[in-house]
Amino acid sequence: MGNPKDTTGLLTSDYYYELPPRLIAQHPAEKRDASHLMVINRATGSIEHRRFSDIVEYLDPGDVLVINDSKVIPARLYGDIPGRDTAVELLLLREHKPDTWETLVKPGKRARTGTRLVFGQGILVGEILNLTPDGNRIVGFEYDKNKYNSVYEILDKIGLVPLPPYITEPQQEKDRYQTVYAREEGSVAAPTAGLHFTPELLDEIRERGVAIVPVMLHVGLGTFRPVKEKLIERHVMHTEYFSVCGESARIINSRRAAGGRVVCVGTTSCRTLESAADSTGIIRAMSGDTGIFIYPGYRFKATDALITNFHLPESTLLMLVSAYWSREEILRAYEIAVKEKYRFFSFGDAMFIR
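The chain above was modelled as a monomer; its predicted structure follows.
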């Protein structure tokens, strides 16, 4: 985490910038790798404007590209409370154990302990078991286990993908809020830097001699919740589950030891590696919860380059990117991006910081 001597007094308001609403991308680019790519050289401060497909030119043989292969689940459910004529909206946040989830329920005042919720005309029934300190609900689910193997199977039938609130237009292609390499179900939001990759582009990267290595972090809403504290250092991140397997750790460590760079695709891959790295930057095979909050003053241990999207003002993601370069330079780059009409946020354009 950041050094308190370096971070004391950092204000959340220092990470605000003006963004015209028209630059918030409502739809993905026609082709995934056709997005714009801003390439930043930290050593010189230079900025280039390219297409995302050009990322191959900036990767060297021996590098390792680290991707987050978590898969977004259709985590939003609409149902009702039997006998009360009350419609409810439920958002699954995190699986605590099979058939037991931490959730957000609206309206919260009606969602007391013991309340039963019905979804999909009875296909799925939930009961609120208890409340968490921050107001979330722990819900236990019941369903016909002769018909369905898990809650995930039912979500595929009746759930909706919870797009961010700034995406207000209907989507034609539901799979575009999913990376092409998504594998393990569990995220409620996409690791959006990975949305730019196509299978063909990944093949081209491999042919260049770059290893592509998966890690996993199930993206929760905590990553995107606004920072309400005036002082950054007082903000507390919600924890998210992550995992780094032994083979991924071995490849990353061996490539880096041989002089290759570790290129993280997205802030989630970066946070995963920084959580799994020891003080010397060696990646350990491990899994567990991480609440790592990276902001200026943090000393990166395992990230040599970063591919990322353009993030919301005053967000923890913008603070992480600012820690990787500097607040002043990142905000300068964002100002240029606005001038050049880059597209922002989840379906927007990308930045490569090297």
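The chain has a mean pLDDT of 94.
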